[in-house]
Specification:
Largest sheet: 7 strands, mixed
Strand order of the largest sheet: 2-8-7-6-5-3-4
Distance between the termini: 26 Å
Bound molecules: pyridoxal-5'-phosphate
CATH topology of the largest domain: Aspartate Aminotransferase, domain 2
Shape: globular
CATH architecture of the largest domain: 3-Layer(aba) Sandwich
Mean pLDDT: 94
Radius of gyration: 22 Å
CATH superfamily of the largest domain: Type I PLP-dependent aspartate aminotransferase-like (Major domain)
Number of helices: 13
């Protein structure tokens, strides 16, 4: 085996992004300040309230929303559950590749759930949406394979039939330009930790005038839309991360990452046989690359890479420890083997050529070793990959 490099290579930015230095700094400042409860009417409460309102505006401008349309939550999962709570006992259609916090919360609450099929790249076709549903929920970008959905076309179709539209933009936020008005959606989910903010804070955008039922009751916070003492430190961090994205044109920076991602893809496909790419060539986030290697299990590849200081994901990070094949790859490739053998590289803004070089030093021998141990003999039998 190759020697472990002293510098770990983090290629799991879709699971969570390390805190941006400015976020750390602003969260520390907020922690050290003598803040009060944002709902209190005294000076300390006022100071906390100002931190929260500044963050609300910083997040709103990134998606071209009005600050009043932004509701702070505990993360993407809560935002998704809140939308489904709003459509309790109604008819809901969700794509087959949604995050479990959409799929499972829809199944738990809606009177009827239609699963929208996706093509081999993971894209939903607006023509598959039946006019008799009340809500459609399709993510802006998929967390496992990076597919970008045709959201504007989906929303246009839904509006013709007076269907409300929700999009989980947790992965797309900060990576591609988002404008809620031109997209034409009624609800949008965001999460701080996917853009270099802290874990445990998110947002639900609710277009003015759209139906809304709180998930968490028992307080007047967030204009009576989400009870619970306001998470000032987390929100300060989310605001700082959003401000960083705005000030540094983060979408342009992320677009630049596609070059390295494509280089990694090309080299792996050239240098490692029996490998399939699960990420679409077009219509994908710039930093995600999902691949499957015949006769090599994703989890094993992940562990061997980790031993070498290279950190990647398999399926959904949230489902780590869950041994069922990825529902995303099952919905696109319809093959349990491909689903079990997949790994996800999610590059960061700090990923370098040297990191790619290191992956290409380490990955081929790992795959060769796993294949040697496998009972599947490549070349002798017809492998599906
Ligand atoms: C697409 C998507 N939606 C929702 C979530 C959940 O967000 P959070 O971790 O903030 O609850 C994730 C997290 O991995 C995600 O990738």
């Amino acid at each position: 085996m190759l020697e472990q490099s002293d510098h770990p290579i983090y290629l799991d930015h879709a699971a969570t992004m390390p805190l941006l230095p400015i976020v750390k700094q602003q969260m520390q400042e907020a922690l050290l300040a003598d803040y009060g409860n944002a709902s209190s009417l005294h000076q300390r409460g006022h100071m906390a309230h100002q931190i929260v309102e500044a963050a609300r505006s910083q997040i709103a401008r990134l998606i071209n929303a009005d600050p009043a349309e932004i509701i702070f939550t505990s993360g993407g999962s809560e935002s998704n559950n809140t939308v489904m709570e709003t459509f309790r006992d109604r008819k809901v259609a969700v794509s087959a590749i949604e995050h479990p916090s959409v799929l499972e919360s829809a199944k738990a609450r809606a009177s009827q759930v239609t699963i929208l099929p996706v093509d081999a790249e993971g894209r939903v076709s607006p023509a598959d949406i039946s006019p008799d549903v009340d809500l459609v929920s399709v993510m802006l970008a998929n967390n496992e394979i990076g597919t970008l959905e045709p959201l504007a076309a989906i929303a246009k179709h839904c509006k013709k039939h007076n269907i409300f539209v929700h999009t989980d933009a947790t992965q797309a936020f900060g990576k591609i330009k988002i404008d809620v008005r031109t997209l034409g959606v009624d609800y949008m989910t965001l999460s701080a930790h996917k853009i270099g903010g802290p874990i445990g804070v998110g947002v639900l955008y609710v277009k003015q005038g759209s139906p809304y039922h709180p998930l968490i009751l028992g307080g007047h916070q967030e204009n009576r839309r989400r009870a619970g003492t306001t998470n000032i430190i987390g929100i300060a961090g989310f605001g700082a991360a959003a401000a960083w994205c705005w000030d540094h044109w983060s979408c342009r920076k992320w677009a630049g990452v596609a070059k390295l991602r494509n280089e990694l893809k090309q080299r792996i496909l050239q240098e490692i046989p029996y490998c399939t790419c699960n990420t679409p060539a077009e219509h994908s986030l710039p930093h995600i690359l999902n691949l499957s290697f015949a006769a090599a299990e994703g989890e094993s590849i992940q562990l061997y890479l980790s031993e070498q200081g290279i950190y990647v994901g398999t399926g959904s990070a949230c489902a780590a420890g869950d041994l069922r094949p990825s529902h995303v790859i099952m919905a696109t490739k319809h093959d349990a083997e491909i689903a079990h053998n997949s790994i996800r590289f999610a590059l960061g803004l700090d990923t370098t050529e040297a990191d790619i070089e290191r992956v290409m030093q380490v990955l081929p021998p790992i795959i060769a070793r796993l294949r040697d141990m496998s009972t599947i003999k490549l070349g002798e039998k017809d492998v599906s990959i």
